[in-house]
Amino acid sequence: MTLPEVTPPGFPPPYPAGAARFAPGAAVRVRPGDAPGHLRTPWYLRGRAGRIERICGAFANPEELAYHRDGQPPRVLYRVRFTMAELWGPGAEQPADTLDAEIFEHWLEPMETGDAA
Fold first, then answer.
1. DSSP states of 32-85 as a string?
2. CA nearest to 99, candidates 32, 3, 24
3. CB 105 within 8 A of CB 62
4. Element (H, E) at 104
5. Neighbour-count burial of 107, counting CB atoms closer than 10 A to its CB (0-12 exposed, 13-18 middle, 19+ buried)
6. In the sheet where 108-110 sits, what is the strand order?
7. Is the Cβ–Cβ distance between 85 and 96 less than 8 Å?
């Protein structure tokens, strides 16, 4: 697995982020699996590893808002960077190219130190 390099932005998150669990540059994996209902995490990212590019802020949970609930407590939103090699495997046309996706904290888990290459 090859994780992308990131240069964290030189400014604080544009919105309050509360107690963010991850810092820019941290290696994370998107939780695999399924859940019933309205989900805001693309299937092709589930189970994949990336790096936190930035903290976007804390917002109401859109998975709850979709059902006309209040979305509380707020969830921290991150921009996570993935390599094409991580997403599409050895057949990736440009393996070093990257994709950034904004993913809420409850979909992310820390990677073990030995997992990140």
1. -S--SS---S-GGGTT-EEEEEEEEEEE--HHHHTTTS--PSPEEEEEEEEEHH
2. 3
3. no
4. strand 98-104
5. buried
6. 98-104, 75-83, 49-59, 27-30, 108-110
7. yes
Amino acid identity at 38: H
**Residue pLDDT, tens place only, 83-110:** 999 999 888 889 889 999 999 999 999 9
Q: Which two tokens stand for residue 49?
A: 């590893």
| Token code pair at residue 14 | 């544009």
Contact 94, 82 (CB under 8 A): no
Q: What's the mean pLDDT in 48-57?
A: 95
Inter-CA distances, 110 with 25, 48, 54, 95, Å: 12, 12, 15, 23
Q: What average pLDDT does the segment 56-78 reach?
A: 87
Q: What is the CATH number of domain 27-115?
A: 2.30.30.50
Q: Percentage of residues in the chain with pLDDT exceeding 70? A: 91
- Tracing tokens 């495997």 back to the chain, one arrives at 89
